[in-house]
Amino acid sequence: MSRRRRRERTWRRLALLALAVSLALPAGTARAGSATLPARTTIEADIVGAWNPNGLLAVVGASRRWTLEGDPGSPLSPYLQAGLSLGSSPAYARGSAYAEWMPHAALQLRAQYTLYRYYGGDSVALLSFPSGDSLFGDEEVSDLEGEAEAAWGQRLLLNPVLRVKFGPLLLRNSTDVAWFRFGGRGPYFLEWEYDTLLKDGDWLVADSAQVLGKLWQGSGDAALYGGPFFEIVHAGAAGITQERAGLMMSWTGPGQLGVLRRPRTFLQAGAHLRDPNREGELFVVGGVGFTFRGP
Hints:
The chain is mainly beta. It has helices at residues 3-24, 138-143; strands at residues 29-32, 35-51, 55-67, 79-88, 92-104, 107-118, 128-129, 151-166, 169-182, 188-191, 196-199, 203-217, 223-235, 241-252, 256-257, 260-274, 282-293.
């Protein structure tokens, strides 16, 4: 199959997903049997930045949530949710469509499709490497300046999240099981979000475990959480395993600033424990976000 036909098929698939979600978004209520499910629409935006490896991503998204039982305003009530998002980084633009189900406060399950457009040109977009043993740190990326390709990419993602509360502590574990397609030369490509090497048609597993305590409680849902975390990423074909650990804080604020609601921010800082390029080095990740419409 030609690259052009593959690209057309990709666009058709994304269009069908977008249509399915867009049909759901305008609806005020949904029915399961004879029960009316309360529904609400949320529009929000986030910016995330990172150092070592360096990264920047801005995302805006819209979602529609149907509460299955309990209080529609409670984040612990079981729900179904569908959403769309658009994002951009220095390397690529991306569009995503997802469906999410939380049958219980302890379990959240998301299935997501993402289409990437790597910018190419003078950007640090889609970079190719000769083998899974290649180094892909800052110096190696800098040496490949001008070789970035303008191409398409795809990701299928399954993300289960488990949450358990023990007294004042919240234990949270999030797992990404992802499958990727790339349209460039290869045979290995630098995947920017996970900072690893993947082949076309490759997969990876990423897991993040957190132990969080409530450090501050404000009015309503306003709160500050903090505690240690541990992350591990394994890339399939290259066999690369990366580990890092550190401390994180997550804050949700009260009130509203103009059209901006529910301000939020998070910060992670720690060390790369196992990494072919950065082992023993420090890193920082942080982000801010707001809700424009929604609870």
